[in-house]
Amino acid sequence: MERDESRQRVLSEFARPSALAPFRIRNYRFQWPADLLTSWAFEMEMIILGWYVLVETGSVLLLTVFASLGYVGTLVAPMIGVVGDRIGHRDLLAMMRATYAVLAALLMTLALSGHLSPPFVFVVAALMGVVRPSDLGVRSALVATIMPRDQLIGAISISRTTMDTARIAGALSGAGLFAALGMGPAYVAIVCLYVVATSLTLCVVAPVKPHAVDDTAGEALRSPLRDLKEGVAYCWTTPRMCAALWIAFLANLTAYPLTNGLLPYVAKSIYGTNQTGLGYLSASFAIGSLVGSILLSLLGGIRVARLMIASTVLWYVTLLLFVQMQTVPTAIVCLVIAGFSQSLAMISIAVILMRTSAENFRGRVMGVRMMVIYGLPFGLLAAGSLIDAVGFATTGTLYAVAGLALILVTVMHWRADLWPVHAPANAR
């Protein structure tokens, strides 16, 4: 009797959601640290280069231009998704990360030799921006490929923690290294992170899909543009995907500019702080995001579409408060809550897209998902001009109010596909 009760307790423990469950999959144990190191390097670069551009040029407009260059590749993201569906997401991801290492090594060499200048930074940022926006989409497609369907929410949530911890450790270490040692030594660390991340990515062994010989030959002869059109049409004609993509676009257009590219300006001009203060502000947003990612990985039976709606509304309400804050401590509190809610919203969008899409369309679906990030550079550029004209608080209020209104219109338009319990987007 006692033995049976003990066995039942053990089985119940395994039945509970666990944040560590995805790590039972061998491929995930390699992909997660590879994503983590890549995200750390991304964040360190953004902090270091953003501060460098602001100090060297003294222009908030040029800062927004620099931040916008990091997203020029969103227009080609669907085509990168086509490539991933053809050659495999693991191979594509490894090639992308090798490219990051080469470009970071170029900046490292220029910094150590004393030849670095803002024009060089803008050129390298533009080259990096062609590839980097697709990294999140390709890694999500790879997670969906290597993970069982019933573990997808937990796996994507834990995968999201790589970006969250990067905004904590990456931001603080990047700002600290830059302030203490200078740009050249800081970039030595960044190059090392990219090299190790590339090596770990190559250790992932993605399952090979069986194809008939005739099918393989036909796939090779298919036009990439035809594949791209099919992927876009697939997203456009699937209501739940279309709604999720519109919400992602609006968030990138009106929410992310306030806490991404503009943070160096907020830290320096609004709060009068230095690189360390910037690191704290960036890390506070990431702490909230990390809490959200871990919490979602522990919960089961979530109505994902409803969670997406509620968390997006909370995100915008918090941003309305953030743009009115005049001190660093109050801003940090707002950023923690904003990070928490945006994490829930973005994970929900990724789960809706990956869990309800056909396997042979995942790369293209995430490519289209990355393309909507193009709203971010437009939002940044417009914000730079508006801040010069009416100030940060007014600009931020306008962005938050307009974004929230458009999100609610989107939700009402696709209400039948997002809110009912029986809707596919809310499937447990």
C-alpha geometry: globular
Q: Could you describe the largest sheet, including whether it forms a barrel?
A: none
What fraction, in percent, of the residue positions are helical? over 70%
CATH superfamily: MFS general substrate transporter like domains
Name of the top-level CATH class: Mainly Alpha
Enumerate how many helices there are, as a single number: 21
State the distance separating the first and last CA atoms.
35 Å
Task: Give your account of this protein's structure.
With 428 residues, the chain is mainly α. It has a single domain (22-201, 210-426), classed as Growth Hormone, Chain: A (Up-down Bundle). Helices cover 80% and strands 0% of the residues. Mean pLDDT is 82; it is low at 1-16 and 210-218.
How are the SSEs ordered, and which strands pair?
Elements: H1 2-15, H2 26-57, H3 60-69, H4 77-87, H5 89-113, H6 118-131, H7 135-146, H8 152-181, H9 183-202, H10 213-221, H11 224-236, H12 239-254, H13 256-259, H14 263-270, H15 275-298, H16 304-322, H17 328-355, H18 362-371, H19 375-390, H20 392-413, H21 415-418
Helix pairs in contact: 2-3, 2-8, 2-9, 3-19, 4-5, 4-11, 4-18, 5-6, 5-7, 5-9, 7-18, 8-9, 8-15, 8-17, 12-17, 12-19, 12-20, 14-15, 15-17, 16-17, 16-20, 19-20
